[in-house]
Amino acid sequence: MSFVATPQSMTFDAPLQLQSGAQIRGYQLAYETYGTLNADKSNAVLICHALNASHHVAGVYAEQPGNLGWWDNMIGPGKPVDTDKFFVIGVNNLGSCFGSTGPMHINPDTGKVYGADFPVVTVEDWVNAQARLLDALGIEQLAAVMGGSLGGMQALSWTLQHPQRVRHAVVVASAPNLNAENIAFNEVARRAIVTDPDFHEGHFYQHGVVPKRGLRIARMIGHITYLSDDVMNEKFGRELRNAVNSPTGYKYSTQDVEFQIESYLRYQGDKFSEYFDANTYLLITRALDYFDPARAHGGDLAKALAVARCKFLLVSFTTDWRFSPARSREIVQGLIANGRDVSYAEIDAPHGHDAFLLDDPRYLNVVRAYFEQTVAGGVQ
Hints:
CATH class of the largest domain: Alpha Beta
CATH superfamily of the largest domain: Alpha/Beta hydrolase fold, catalytic domain
């Protein structure tokens, strides 16, 4: 039984300086909190979200009992990140489309919808915006920052941008940067969106249309990368959706859906295009591309990680080819080179990149043990 979550928002009038040199002012951050902040505010845990997620990390809404938080199996009373012990904060990042200020909102400088004029944001910008929210909540230091995939990049960046404000970092199914293949997948997805006739150079809002065709294809590409080959074959194989009465069962059509995997991808694409914002997709995938803390250190990750002061838990999954275990081990090696306290778990799981969201008992127990035995030790 999940608890009832209450979405909140906070407005920030002071301009936020972005890495690009631009600024954004008068913005809102949507967030949720679970559990109780203790007297000395030492039990706060920040959860950072990935591409298609939000501040709604756990629980359900009273008016939407079916709207379960995206990491509800991880966070809540008695769960690995136990809200009976920790005060958990989920924040929707700037540029997203789930409540925080994004491309679909009004630019206070022009009085018009931002659209494609919304400034490019980076992982580092998100972390600085999250830090402002913590300031407003009176939280000087986090017991832990945690995230999976792109959320793991934010957790890692917290330890580099605000090293004194983090005691523990939990980085799951992530990487120190994107390799060329991952950048390529993002670019193909972006091209699908911007070449949709309904995109209108990002100002589709004023035309009353949505580039759904591009969003569908972008999501289909993404889903292929989230699943492992084994899971895709086990779940779909070469099964036909509606076999016809012929020796092969084929319709011999280039347009109809023949295979179950085609049906699944089209369903996921259709669903995504109904709720996700096209400009947000461009912004978030570009933030993924840009993240590379070693770049300012001549590509030397160990040098980049030298500023970190907290303890780390890293988790990877053997069949995750989007963010492979080798990428997590790069971070581990860089931390060890700096004498940092780091724990690493490589889970033999068949689910691919999506494993970080699923109910693998070994994975959940690793996180539970880390929070119970390590993170809780610094909480009064």
